[in-house]
What does this fold into?
Amino acid sequence: MVVHRDHHKLSLVYCAFVHCPSKQGAKPQPAAQFLMQLPLPLLPSPMHRQLLLLLLHLFSFSVSFSTFTTAAAASGSPEVAFLTQWLNTTAARPPDWSPSAASPCKWSHIGCDAAGGAVTSVTFQSVHLAVPLPSGLCAALPGLVSFVVSDANLTGGVPDDLSQCRRLAVLDISGNSLSGPIPPSLGNATAMASLILNSNQLSGSIPVSLSNLASSLKDLLLFDNRLSGELPESLGELRLLESLRAGGNRDLSGSIPESFSKLSNLTVLGLADTKISGPIPASFGRLQSLQTLSIYTTMLSGSIPPELGNCANLTNIYLYENSLSGPLPPSLGALPQLQKLLLWQNSLTGPIPESFGNLTSLVSLDLSINAISGAIPASLGRLPALQDLMLSDNNITGTIPPALANATALVQLQLDTNEISGLIPPELGRLAELQVLFAWQNQLEGAIPATLASLANLQALDLSHNHLTGVIPPGLFLLRNLTKLLLLSNDLSGPLPPEIGKAGTLVRLRLGGNRIAGSIPAAVAGMKSINFLDLGSNRLAGPVPAELGNCSQLQMLDLSNNTLSGALPESLAGIHGLQELDVSHNQLTDAVPAVFGRLVTLSRLVLSGNSLSGPIPAALGQCRNLELLDLSDNELSGRIPNELCGIDGLDIALNLSRNGLTGPIPANISSLSKLSVLDLSYNALDGGLAPLAGLDNLVTLNVSNNNFTGYLPDTKLFRQLSTSCLAGNAGLCTKGGDVCFVSFDANGRPVMNADEEVQRMHRLKLAIALLVTATVAMLLGMIGILRARGMGFGGKGGGHGGGSSDSEAGGDLAWPWQFTPFQKLSFSVEQVVRNLVDANIIGKGCSGVVYRVGIDTGEVIAVKKLWPSTRADAGTKDDGGRVRDSFSAEITEKSDVYSYGVVVLEVLTGKQPIDPTIPDGLHVVDWVRRRKGGADLLDPALQGRSDSEVEEMLQVMGVALLCVSPTPDERPTMKDVAAMLKEIRLEREEYAKVDVLLKAGGSPPRAATTSTSSTPPCRQQGQSNSNSNSCSSSSFSGMIYPSSKAKSPFD
It folds into this structure.
């Protein structure tokens, strides 16, 4: 095309393809160079600019096209040119793909028609190509029938022009990194039989136009992408469709279209791990060809339609992790081909149908985590192929039918967490293939059958938390494949059999919470694989055998709550992987072995409640991974080693209470910056508390009953600390209000200038004057009351000030009272007395009643009216014949649990007990109780935590509300509180682990994913290590183990 330039017109020459002639006979010159030589106007018009853009576009196209044509010209085959051009940038191009080849038909990965003239297939599987899908595929390879490039890391999108492949029957581009939408134009590829797009990153909705492939499409695989929206109703028109899989697209929603019941050739329907909701259509009963129904981990609801019993070819039903309800349809028992019926974690109710005994092909039946009731049908024993019978976490009652022993193919039998009673049938010993037997947390009784020792393939046996009696069958320790034996919390007795030393394959042996007696046999050294040995809470006596040091794989050792005696063997220091050691509440003597400092992996060392003596070994400071150290309630002496303060990981607790420790608190204790609980009570420690000022993370502190002196650190913890946590230190300033709090410098010296000292002395004098005034007032009041008694005003029905409307006062006569001000305020006795009415009660305890008192200055104070000390014994009569009420009892371990609850509420809400930001002047207890808990009550700094952490904090808030119950008898003890708090923490951790386990499997389901049991997370035996109040650390004798209600593989 030539346009001549005349009178400011542009003359341009465009030459087809790439080259343009410059002169006759001269070599062609590149188009770009040619354009550079063309004359252009000085001021190009808009039209000129458009022409230039057009030329540049044409030039860009011509370059790529010329490359293709050049290659085509070189090889003589446009197919060779296209294919080599597609893979010219990847190192994975096959070496036999020569650009100069005359035809690609002899290349690897290429198939041609019988005549050898046209490419019909391209196949790359698990070859790392890392290139985009080519455009123009159909134009370059018009005879293409199959294009399979899977697991090849293809990138980019799916080209729209694939629909132009009129003969394309198989398109498999699965397992790549393709993104973008599925082109609706694929609905025009009318020869398509298999459209396989799974395992990519495709997004958007499923095109409705795919229904146009009704005459050809048999397989539609879209699973594991990022598709969203609803399932198109039009997919029900694909009358030849055999496989429809769209699971793993977590944003697919809506209900299952009723039209799917018209897919009469459908063999596989997979919609798992989506947001599909609603019921399973009853019309699915018409799907006579259906073999696999896989719709697990979705939002299905309603009942399982009985019509599914008409799908005679059903082989696999995966409907677990939904919200299905109602009974199990007996009609499912009419499916002769059914091999796997997995319905766990729904809300199914009712009994297991007797008809399930007709499922002669059944291999796996998992109905766990539902609400199924009734007895286990004996008919299940007629299932010759049954390998997995999992019924845990239901409401099943009755006994274990002996007929189950006829299901000789059984590999897993899981019956845990039900209400099954009676004996364990000895006939179960005939299950020669059995590998897993779980029946924990039921109501089983009687002895463990000795026939279970015949189960040569048994790997895990858990019968914990039942009422089993008798001895442990010695033959169980001879099973060569047994790795886990858990018999916790039964009533087993007798000694540990010597055969225990032959259990070389045992990894976990947990026998805690029984009545096992005798000594620990030295033969335990034979357990070379043992990882967790739990013999706690039994009646074992004698020494801790030194042979335990030969159990080199041991990580957790629990011998607590027995009557073991003697010294701790130093050989335990040779177990280099030991992480938890608990020998608390025994009768151990002698010193704590210094060689324990070699246990560098130790995280929890609990030696409390023994008679250990001597100093605390400084070598324990080498246990850098220690999180909890409890040496309380022993006879230890000497100073607290400075080395303990160098344990960086000590973040849970340090409990040294109830010993004979002396000397000051180490100055470097502030290095324990992560420590949450510190208990130094009931020792003979002296000096000041300044070193504790730097422990910012402390939640619980008890330094009572020592010889500490001086002022208190001016920190939030000390200002909120109960006086009982400081009591018993004669030289410690605890009752002077603000006077007692000072700041300390880095050397532990009080920081105070002259003005502050003057103010402090002034406040101290004022406090003393106030105390004297209050004392005089009390004396005058006492005299008045005594006179009133002498005048007979204390009789029944008297209303002259001596009477009391408080039901907890113990009678109709007002008792003498004492008035002790805890704040530096100007108020009179009368201002306090007139507010001591029921309407102002904040809380009640065994030691008295706490009132909210507003005084004339507008300030609000808390006043505690104590019960008279003369009324110590509840339920007895005093000299006047009056019966004292239950609230006049001596102060018990529950008396100050109320204070602990208040402290917990302060921590969670970030508010003071009487906080100006709380509406209506409510106390924090009343405010939380009135609001009935809720995440909005949490401190804003805590509300941004993860959902699981917020849930845990709300459960802790519930425990705190139990602590501040208005009735003391309804409050838990501190030991119970500690157990509940540990259970909350561990339950979250275990369910988090379970969530991962349940979702880890794709299709189909789990094998052996129910759990074994564990001990309660906190021992209930033994005494608390210190006084039970809000500053107490309660007991750390129970090592923390997983929750007994979680589901995990073999625990």
